[in-house]
Amino acid sequence: MGIVAFRQPFTRPPKSHFIQVRHQHYQGESHPASRKVTISLPVSQLPLSPSQLHKFKLLSGSRFTPSLPSSSSSPNSESEGTFKISCELYPSERMNEKWCSDTLDTLLKECKEGKDSYEDVPIDLRGARKRLVRSGKGKKTLGLKDFPKEWLGQAKST
Q1: Spatial distance between the Cα atoms of 111 and 106, rounded to a whole number of angstroms
Q2: CATH code, residues 15-114
Q3: In the chain, what are the domain boundaries?
Q4: What's the pLDDT tens digit per position in 54-90?
Q5: Which of 138, 107, 114 shows the shortest CA–CA distance to 39?
Q6: Contact (Cβ atoms closer than 8 angstroms) between residue 114 and residue 52
Q7: CA 87, CA 36: separation in Å to the nearest integer?
Q8: Distance from CA of residue 97 to its chain's centroid?
Q9: What is d(CA 48, CA 114) in angstroms, rounded to the nearest whole number?
Q10: ∠ at Cα 102 (17, 128), nearest 5°?
Q11: What's the start-to-end Cα distance of the chain, in Å?
Q12: Model pTM?
């Protein structure tokens, strides 16, 4: 009989399964980082309204990474960016995964049921910009051409 009898063809997961859970394993040896769990997901797949999505991005802080401007031209599932959270506080992988899942659930609950929508607060992207510059994919400085035109005001002709 053998193991060949248990072979199955690969089927792509459905669109409703968009959360990725990553565990780190060091085969055959114990390692302190083997308990670390990371959850990542595309923000555009969350069942939130635009104002709730804005609040989610604000509350996520540095865990939210916007998509690169060059990749926004192609339609993909990460057009709004990604959310990533990790944990290695607890001794077990399952406990760390539960903490990440509970934190994500708490964020989503606050976005849906919270009283203030924070629509007037802009999203702070300094952390994401710093990561892009360090990786070599972003510009180091911003000039006047990158500044919003409506903030510059009209030049007075005297």
Answers
A1: 9
A2: 3.30.160.20
A3: 15-114
A4: 999 999 998 998 887 654 444 444 578 999 999 999 9
A5: 107
A6: no
A7: 6
A8: 16
A9: 13
A10: 75
A11: 92
A12: 0.72
